[in-house]
Amino acid sequence: MELYFELLKKPVFSIADAEQFYKTKESARTAVKRLILQGLVKKIRNNLYTCISGETDAPVANKYQIASAITETACVSHHTALEYYGFSDQVIYDVYVASESVFHSFEFDGYTYICVKSKLKDGIETVQYSGGIRITDRERTLIDCLKDMDRIGGMEETLAAISMMNRLNEKKLLFYLEEYDNQFLFQKAGYLLQPFSKPLGLSEDFFRTCKSKIGRSRRYLTKDFTQGSYVKEWQLIVPNSLYVLKNGVEVGNDRV
To answer: Which of 63, 100, 117, 167 is most buried, judged by most C-beta within 10 A?
Structure first.
């Protein structure tokens, strides 16, 4: 029982965390197995555990803490990060985790943890007094969501989140765009963020930079639509039906 109270100090722990209280790793493993049988600890995945609260009978660790502990480089990302920041009004049961090392998706306590292979080391913050939550900052979260829009969240959900955002750091946005070095991403960022330039605090220089990077390729804004109208400014073919967000903002009214 003494081990249980020690482990309660860490929302997510491994056998190595328990080992400091025993002479051997096997002794620590046996002790953790005993706590599992007693219903005091629950296994999340291989060598990842959390205590069960005596008050709520639920896991002590929340989904953000679990996501941050899956690998050494793991952090909360994409629409899970949007939810953490309050830019989503939906409860999402898919937990997106950016990680340099790949892990297989798994389920725990009603949530599915999904790995998104990460190539960037920048833009990750450790939240103070959060029990170890690591998360992409707001600017990288936005760029990641635009980059992976067709496979995570979709355009409508991404636009709904953007409509809830306030002033962002323009230099950071451009830095992450440059790091990804993807012409299509510059096109998407320029076109989709332009109607929100004022609340996001984006200058004309931001959009001029995006335009200078898009090259000559004409692309569909999203693979979900194979027909639409051509926006000459951004060399994009966008859906014919305009997306009207919950706050009434129309996106796409600059078509030519």
So the answer is: 63
